[in-house]
Amino acid sequence: RGGPGRTGMGLPAAVRDQVAAVHRGSALPERLRLYDGWAGRYEQDVAALEYRAPHLAAASLAFAFSAPRAGARLLDVACGTGLVARELHRRGFRCLHGVDGSAGMLERARSTGLYQELRLCVLGREPLPAPAEHYDAVTVVGALGEGQVPSTVLPELLRVTKPGGFLCLTTRSNPSNLRYKVELEAALGQLEQSGAWQKLLAQEVEYWERATTEEESTQGTGYISGVVYIYQKCPVPHLEEG
Question: Which site among 70, 149, 163, 229 is 20 to 30 Å from 31 CA-CA?
Answer without folding.
Answer: 229
